[in-house]
Structure formats: structure tokens, C-alpha cells
Design brief:
Largest sheet: 5 strands, antiparallel
CATH architecture of one domain: Roll
Shape: elongated
Number of helices: 10
């Protein structure tokens, strides 16, 4: 994030204040007072956390200008929050609800982060999930073209023209309303799960070099599809998707933990 010196406009204050609502970092063990505002100390732990949320980098790497700007912003926050009116507003139901929600959200994120740290995905779990994903992945990839039109009647007319020997690419260039029209309807190579189901099902049912004999309807309109080629789907290597698989395993563990917490406990006898 770029920083520039300015006069601390209050229009920016609300943005930077609420930008840190979901921030969760481990505060330093040692903390000292950076500045005191109306008797309220700005502790270094608070300063560093706010600094890192604003700069998106470790506090130790912040420049003097960045640190000065952040101190100015925190001073504004402390000035406003220590006014007598702030104490009155703190008793309003709306402000109490906002404070409670932010408190619960930050605490819940802390518990979730702690749970994942103590229950990391093991190599065996990562390998098992990877193998499961490979089993579920499509066996083939397809190279196809399509012509997208607004009505079923238009699509039927295009099929008649193709049956009569018209060139698919030329029809796509002149008739298709889709973004691939100018390139002759070319969609390149794709896996079935990358397309909406009616489209992918139709492509899978065709032979290489064949086009659909009936129009295919999706939320985008009516399609006439030409399957040009097919090939075996090469799955990604484990190392290339390890981080994603690890996150998926750990997310599943967390969801299972939450489900356990939701399940009523039997009363003791």
C-alpha cells in the first residue's frame, strides 16, 4: 500500500478504522506506550498491529513516513473515542451490538486459527484428499467451438445451415452473440466441470468432429456446439496443488469441529 503525507482527513478515518475489524495477528509479548492521547495510552502492540494492517507488511519493515502516518491516524481514533460523547454513544444499542459483533468475530477467528494450528493437515491426509480429487476429476478434456444465439429458432436454423454444408467457424463469426464469436466460436481446451452442466453434457455426448443436432439451452442462451477434439485429462501434480489441498483438508477439519460443537451433548447420568 502506498502512503503519502496528508492532513488526516476524517473521511479516511472510518475506512481505516473498520478495515482492521477482521484482523487477527499475534501481538508482541513486550509492549510500551507509543503516545498518550487524553490520558489513554497507545500501546506499541496496538500500534504495530494497526501498522501491519495498513501497510500489509511486518512492522519492522515500515518506513518513517508510514509510521508517522499511522500514528496520526491512531491519534485521531483515540481523540474521538476519548470524548465525553463517545462514552454516551457507547451505551447505545447499535454501538453495543457493533462492538459485540467485532469482539465475537475476532475471538472466533482466533479460536479457529488456533484450532488449525494445532490440527494441521498431515502428509497422509493431503495425499488421501489429492487421490480422491483425482478420482473425481473428469477423464477427458475437450476442444470445442460454439455458436450462441438468443432463441431456439435461430439455433435450429443454424443447424439446418450446417447440415447443408455451411462452415461452422464462419457461422460463428457472423451469427454468434458470445465473446468467442469473432474467433469462430473457439473455446480452446477445457474440462467438463469448467462449463455449465447442459453444455458439458452435450459436449461429452458428441464424437470428435460432430456438432449438436439439437440446440442446447443454458442461462446464456441457445448453443450449437462443435466438438473438435478430445484428449486424456492430465491431473496436476501433488506438489503444484499441495497448498490448496492442505487448506481444503484443514477447512474440513474445522467444519467437522464446528459440527461437533453444534451437536447437542447427552446429559450426564
Amino acid at each position: 500500500m502506498e502512503f503519502t503525507r496528508h492532513s488526516r482527513p476524517l473521511s479516511n478515518l472510518c475506512v481505516v478504522t473498520f478495515a482492521t475489524a477482521g484482523l487477527l495477528q499475534v501481538a508482541p509479548v513486550y509492549s510500551e506506550t507509543v503516545e498518550t492521547v487524553n490520558g489513554a495510552p497507545i500501546e506499541s502492540a496496538v500500534f504495530d498491529m494497526y501498522l501491519e494492517s495498513r501497510t500489509q507488511k511486518p512492522a519492522a519493515q515500515a518506513t518513517k513516513d508510514e509510521r508517522d502516518l499511522v500514528l496520526n491516524e491512531l491519534t485521531d481514533i483515540y481523540l474521538l473515542s476519548t470524548q465525553a460523547r463517545a462514552a454516551e454513544l457507547a451505551d447505545s444499542p447499535q454501538v453495543k451490538a457493533q462492538i459485540e459483533l467485532q469482539y465475537r468475530g475476532i475471538l472466533a477467528q482466533a479460536v479457529a486459527t488456533d484450532f488449525v494450528a494445532k490440527n494441521p493437515a498431515t502428509d497422509d491426509e493431503i495425499l488421501a484428499e489429492y487421490s480422491n480429487q483425482i478420482k473425481l476429476s473428469p477423464s477427458l478434456q475437450y476442444k470445442a467451438r460454439h455458436i450462441l444465439v438468443a432463441s431456439q429458432g435461430e439455433a435450429l436454423d443454424l443447424i439446418k445451415q450446417l447440415d447443408g454444408g455451411a462452415d461452422f467457424q464462419e457461422l460463428a463469426k457472423t451469427k454468434s452473440t458470445g465473446p468467442s464469436g469473432p474467433s469462430g466460436g473457439d473455446l480452446g481446451w477445457f474440462s467438463p466441470n469448467q462449463m455449465v452442466k447442459p453444455f458439458s453434457d452435450s459436449v461429452a455426448s458428441l464424437d470428435d468432429g460432430a456438432y449438436t443436432s439439437t440446440p442446447v439451452q443454458t442461462d446464456f442462451g441457445w448453443h450449437v456446439i462443435l466438438r473438435e477434439e478430445s484428449r486424456d485429462n492430465e491431473p496436476p501434480t501433488l506438489e503444484s496443488v499441495r497448498d490448496m489441498i492442505k487448506q481444503r483438508v484443514e477447512q474440513t477439519k474445522l467444519q467437522n469441529y464446528l459440527q461437533e460443537l453444534r451437536t447437542p451433548k447427552p446429559s450426564g447420568g
